[in-house]
Amino acid sequence: MKLSKNLAELVEAGVIDQGTAERISAYYAAKTTTPQSKLVIVFGILGALLVSLGIILILAHNWDDLTRTTKTVIAFIPLLIGQGICGYSLWKRSDSTAWREASAVFLVFAIGACISLISQIYNIPGTITSFLFTWLILALPIVYVMNSSSASILYIIGITYYACDLGYWGSYQVESYIYWGLLLLILPHYYYLYTKRSESNFFTFHNWFIPLSIIITLGTLARDAGEFMFVSYMSLFGLLYLIGGTRVLADLKIRNNGYLVLGSLGTVVLLLVLGFDWFWSDMRDVDRTENLYNTPEFIIAIVLTVAALALLIYQKLKQTPFMLRPAEWVFLVFFGLFILGMNSPFVVIWINILTLIVAVLTIREGAVRNNLGILNYGLLIITGLIICRFFDVNIGFVMKGLLFVLVGLGFFFANLWMIRKKKKVLTPS
Amino acid sequence: MDDPKEKESAYSILIMKRTVILTGFILMVVLQWFIPGRMIFFKERVLSEGTEYRFRTEPFDPYDAFRGKYIHLAFNQATVQLKDSANWNQGEMIFALLSTDSSGYAMVTELRKEEPEEDVDYLKVISGYVYEDSTSTSVSISYPFDRFYMEESKAQAADDAYHQALSDTSKVTYALVLVHRGEGIVKEVYIDGVPIKKIAIERQKLEEEVQ
């Protein structure tokens, strides 16, 4: 082994003593077990997923030669097996994450297979929506009894699909308010991960899946006053961004902090889209007979804005010294601009200035934190803004070309400067 | 941990934790059997106590990844003509009273907003498009049963037979439905009095012989 060789060399040279060498090798020996057990968990879950999906497909064949009673008995066999394996892993393998997660995943799909086969036997019609709802309600207890995060992720995917089916794809589009209730039911497990297992990959997955699910589903609440959904979304992105900045989450790597990434990306994309004049001129042209301030969309926008504002104030009160991060205040300015934009044609200019400010602040943050990723993200926002403006502003090719050359040089020098700065920090002499 | 008192309390916490998990597990298992069991119970009751009706149909066949192959049943009587205009809304659950026409097929005679209390056969249906003019109202309805599951291998042959019967206007296609307290279950689908499963098997045999 390479490590023991190196350690022996260090002991011989008198850099470390024998005790330290032993402690170091013991530390690495303990650490190497982690990736292996992680692999076992991943393959356990994958295996359970494949086997149970296979069973669903076999049952979907719908064997005509079997009697109704036989088919009914068959429907319950996967369920029985799933519950058996879950019981076994709870009592005999309670310390093994792989056993718990894999058996939970299998049981989730066994429930799906069972109710889907009953639907077949009795020719129960209906949309996928009612089928999915029964499935979700029966699968939810698995999350808590088995303490299973993969079941929780499957549940989140399920309720998101359910909400979309109800709100976007259904023949009678209804508001999927049930979704929010179903989402609440999974939060205790999320809170458990937050307090007890904030280091785990499952926590990271939840940090991505939960905000993504909310972003996808919020649109199902739109009805007649869809314009207000832009305010709602902007405030939602602000709220997500702020949540990404709270204590436990702020310490995570950026790629593990779904709230921060989605909040920031969402804010920027929305700003770029609303930087076009057509949205605002369309909004001013629409003759509104009903009172906009009485619509559910307006109430949702207000609730989200107030929630984001409350979190912003709370964070700033606790923070010393006071500083504003690039995208955390945008939703507040946007709310004011949106109200103005209903009558004034100049708002679109302000939106573009706002986007530019966000970009510059992002570049600044990248420089302050010595982070090339954030710096280049800021430069990308500027590039995006310039490309968008090329669509609707009449400027000549020479001018367009010059702007791109300037931005390109900006990328080049900013990165060069940052790399030099990093080198200086590493070699202070 | 050497203190016997501490040891004892740690042990009792462990026992308590196990009891909570065991109770949760048992509740979960009971729920997972109860809900599907309840579905089966209600459907079996319809099958044993329901009244038979023959609904005239028109066919086609989508593929549902979750539930295998089935025939989508489109019923002849998709809208109901009413004399009154009792403010029908789209997407509401309403009650359709059933009767049979002169040739013995089922027909919806009346729509109600409240569940009938007298001893009549009715179905829970969902109201669709509502059209009103000065003399009458027509409400389109979607039936609580619209699919008939087939074994995967027979579904294509059955669908072909179904489409052929559709273009051949002399053939009558209908679904035999059992109706009980607003619920209905499709028991069999017939083309000219022959069960579609039988036709599918014969067609399969015929195709195999040709090949």
Report a brief summary of the structure.
Chain A has helices at residues 2-12, 18-31, 33-60, 68-91, 97-121, 128-145, 149-169, 177-196, 201-218, 228-243, 247-250, 258-274, 277-285, 296-318, 330-341, 347-368, 372-392, 397-426.
Number of strands of chain B: 12
What is the helix content of chain B?
A: 25-40%
Radius of gyration of chain A: 27 Å
Helix and strand run of chain A: HHHHHHHHHHHHHHHHHH
Major β-sheet annotation of chain B: 7 strands, antiparallel
Mean pLDDT of chain B: 79
Principal-axes shape call of chain B: flat
Unreliable stretches of chain B, pLDDT < 50, 5 or more residues?
Answer: 60-68
Task: Identify the overall geometry of chain A.
Answer: flat
**C-alpha end-to-end distance of chain A:** 36 Å
Cα(first) to Cα(last) distance of chain B is: 80 Å
Description:
- The complex is a heterodimer of chains A (429) and B (211).
- Chain A has helices spanning 2-12, 18-31, 33-60, 68-91, 97-121, 128-145, 149-169, 177-196, 201-218, 228-243, 247-250, 258-274, 277-285, 296-318, 330-341, 347-368, 372-392, 397-426.
- With 429 residues, chain A is mainly α.
- The radius of gyration of chain A is 27 Å and the shape is flat.
- Chain A starts with a helix and ends with a helix.
- By secondary structure, chain B is an alpha+beta fold.
- Helix content of chain B is 36%, strand content 37%.
- Chain B contains three helices and twelve strands.
- Chain B has helices at residues 4-49, 152-167, 196-210, and strands spanning 51-60, 63-64, 68-75, 79-82, 93-100, 106-112, 122-132, 137-142, 147-149, 173-180, 183-191, 194-195.
- In chain B, strands 1, 2, 3, 9, 10, 11 and 12 form a seven-stranded antiparallel β-sheet that branches. A five-stranded antiparallel β-sheet of chain B has the order 4-8-7-5-6, with no helix packed on it.
- In chain B, β10 and β11 (183-191) form a beta hairpin.
- In chain B, α2 (152-167) crosses α3.
- The longest helix of chain B is centred in the N-terminal third of the chain and has 46 residues, at 4-49.
- Mean pLDDT of chain B is 79; it is low at 60-68.
- The chains are: A mainly alpha (429), B alpha+beta (211).
- Chain A binds chain B through residues 56, 59-65, 72, 75-76, 79, 83, 86-87, 90, 111-112, 114-116, 118-126, 128, 131, 134, 137-138, 141-142, 144-145, 172, 174, and chain B through 21, 24-25, 27-29, 31-33, 35-36, 39-40, 43, 47, 64-70, 90-91, 143-152, 154, 185-186, 197.
